[in-house]
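Before drawing any conclusions, I needed to go through one protein's amino acid sequence and its backbone structure tokens, quoted below without any editing.
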Amino acid sequence: MQVTDVKRWIWLCLAACVALIGLAGCQKKEAKDSQRSEVEFTVVAKEEIPEELAAEIEKNKQGEIRMAYTDGGNQYLIRGYGEQKTGGYSISVTECTEDETTVYLDTRLLGPANEEQITKEPSYPYIVLKIEAREKEVMIQ
């Protein structure tokens, strides 16, 4: 065997290993995502937020907030977007799911729908979801 043949054989083996690892990773991710189930939630009105949690949100509202808070049999998932230059923003929940170990929350900040909703003062949009308490890690996007 010549040196060039050995080099080709090594490169071929390395390429095959990389391809197999890549395919194995894709299959594992698909299986994991397919095992998620929807989590029932309620959007909590500002006046119904537990007092201690409301104080924590108020203290941190100028920056982004991603937190979970448990109170008795309820768990609250909070996502805040920090200071916005104007009012009229809203938040949409795009995902609230769970698997065996984790609860996932994904939201999107939506800009003012029309000129009438825009106020000149800064706003601090956030959303609070209430779910049944779980002993799982929480991932908030």
Q: What stands out?
A: Residues 3-34 form the longest helix (32 residues).
